Every structure is written in structure tokens, then in C-alpha cells.
Amino acid sequence: MLLLNYALKFGYVYERWLGIVMTMFEKDPGSPKLHRLRAIHLYERDWNLLMGVKWPHLLHLACDQKFINENCYGSMPGKECLDPVFVKELEYEIAHLTRQAVIMNDDDSKANYDWIHAFIANVVGPSKGRNKKVCIVHGQTLKEAKFHVQTKMGISKWHIQHGGFYPLLGTGQHHIPTHVAVHLQCTL
User: Fold this and answer.
1) Per 3-state DSSP, what percentage of the chain is helix, strand, and coil (rounded to 5)?
2) Are residues 143 and 60 part of one domain?
3) CA distance 75 to 142
4) Digits of tens for pLDDT over the chain (188 positions)?
5) Same domain, yes or no, for 55 and 135?
6) Beta-strand relationship, 37-42 and 154-155
7) Are residues 119 and 155 in the same domain?
8) How do beta strands 19-26 and 146-151 pair?
């Protein structure tokens, strides 16, 4: 705990936090298309703990101040990720029982708060109640991090890093840009 407190007090990023492994999963099993890969970033334990403790505070604060769409589920306080599935099943069942024609639109782009670019979240975060030092540590770690890919063939020797030519802007839980995926595949 002392090391985490030191990092927050001085905005320090430990060298071991900079090695991030991206585990690649096929969205369509058996069809490994570059644009259909999902990347899950595996972070160092203590950095993951630090972010896991500090982010929920901001999420609760953002919910209380109505900064996040109230129709979000999953990581939202008081809601479960299965709730929207249950609601959709009820809607289909009601339409079936009442013999009503139904058109469903699943455009939830307003609800995708996890696609907010990390640098924007870190710039805006302090004005919304987030600790400035947490923003500094988070942003500096992602800026300097070296991302290695892990597939069934192992972990790549080569890495990519955030930069002007290959900007890595997200938090790591969604697809990676095709130009980055092509570069990574060539280095395996």
C-alpha cells in the first residue's frame, strides 16, 4: 500500500506498470478476422488495484451528478449487466402475446461511456471530482506503456506504444484499430 500511496502522492509511474499484455479473442470463434478481434488488456496487479479502487468513486460521483446516461447498465451502481437482456426478453414476449409488430433499435452509442478516450477522461476528471494525481498516474502509464500481444501462439516479442502514428486512446476493453492489428500480427 505504501508504494501505491507514493505513486499517487508524487504522480509516479513504476516501470513494471508499463508492460501491458493484450490478450486477443475472436468475436467469431473459428474466424480470426483482424477487424473482429477483441483486445483485453492485462495490467500489473497493483496498478489494476489502484485504478479499480479509484475509478468506482468517480463512477458513483458521475452517476450522482447525472453525467452518465441513466440507461447504462453493467458497471453502474445498482444495476446488473443482465438487466437489459431481461428487459428485451420481456419486450419481445409482450409483443408476441399481444400480436404486435415491433421494430427494435439497439443504438446505444450514448451509453458507451467506456469508449471515452482516456486522455479526455483524465483532462476532465479533476473538474468532475476525480483526484488529479490519479489522472496523472493513469495518463502517464497509458502514454508510456508498451503493449504486447498474446494469442494462442504466445506473447509477442515486439510491442506497440502510444504515439502520433499509432494513437492508442481507449482503456483497453474494446477492439483495436485495424492498422494496429495488422502491425501487431506482422510482429508475432
Assistant:
1) 50, 15, 40
2) yes
3) 22
4) 788 889 889 989 999 999 988 887 788 888 877 777 777 888 888 888 888 887 777 777 777 887 777 777 766 777 777 888 888 889 889 999 999 888 877 665 544 555 667 788 788 878 877 788 888 888 888 888 898 888 778 888 888 888 877 777 766 554 455 445 444 444 44
5) yes
6) unpaired
7) yes
8) parallel
How many Å is the Cα radius of gyration of the chain?
19
**DSSP one-letter code for 102:** -
Under a CB-based contact definition with an 8 Å cutoff, are residues 84 and 100 in contact? Answer: no
Nearest residue to 159 via CA among 177, 176, 180, 141 = 180
Give me the half-sphere count of Cα atoms (radius 13 Å) on the Cβ side of residue 130. 24
Q: Please, are residues 40 and 22 in contact by the beta-carbon 8 Å criterion?
A: yes
Residues 95 and 118 in one domain: no
